[in-house]
Amino acid sequence: MSRPSRPAISPRRKPRQQRSQATVEVLLLATARVLAARGWAGTTTNHIAARAGVSIGSLYEYFPSKEALAAALALRHVEAAETRLAELGAHLGDCELTLELLVKAMVSAMIELHAENPRLHRVLFEEVPLGLAIRRRVRAMEDQHARALAAVLPRLTSLCEPELRARVTVELLETLTHRWVVTAKAEPIPRERMQAELERLVLAYLRAG
Question: Of 2.10.70.10, 1.10.357.10, 2.40.50.580, 3.30.420.10, which CATH number belongs to 74-207?
Answer without folding.
Answer: 1.10.357.10
